Amino acid sequence: MGCQGKVRAGLNWLVVVVVAVVWQGGKWGVEGQVHHVVGDDRGWDLTSADIAAWAATRTFAVGDFIWFAYSGGIGQDRVVELKSKEEFESCDLRNPIRMYTDGLDKIPLEEEGIRYFASSNIESCKKGLKLPVDVKSKSRAENEESISIATSEEAALSLAQEPTAPSSSTKICGSIMIIIGGLMLSHVGV
């Protein structure tokens, strides 16, 4: 791959990094609040998303928001909030606290505790389309995230390979990438 190809690939990589910094892997936010999009780009859907795996990678804190994105058509998997763990585990949907039907629902997480969300379709709920959200205080959530980041860094370092000496074309392309990155970051205002 020539320098031009490396620059193009580098630009693509830089765009991905900027988007990742802004969006932070399915969540974005300003200081003090994070917006969690349930299921990331797959949304609230039994056939295309593993909601439990998605939730396992998140820390929810007071002041954050969760977003449910789903098809709002008749007979679709809308979202209900349930009162108790028992209702949640048994998919007892008879007396929900609230039903969300817009197809794009923004829900503020205003206090600590566990909230229970499930599909309004009992069959989908029983197949696993449900989400417990353990909302923590800001300080507790920040502590847990810093532990998680440290663990991830250690794992990444243990898998890292020994660096090799860059070629002269890599040095030139690398310089170009630094200049392009600086221009992009100054343009974005980061």
Automatic annotation (TrEMBL):
Residues 1-29 form the signal peptide. GO terms for cellular component: plasma membrane. One of its GO terms (molecular function) is electron transfer activity. Gene3D superfamilies: Cupredoxins - blue copper proteins. Residues 34-137 form the Phytocyanin domain. Keywords: Disulfide bond, Glycoprotein, Signal. CDD domains: Phytocyanin. It comes from the Eukaryota. InterPro entries: Cupredoxin, Phytocyanin-like, Phytocyanin_dom. It holds the Pfam family Cu_bind_like. This is Phytocyanin domain-containing protein.
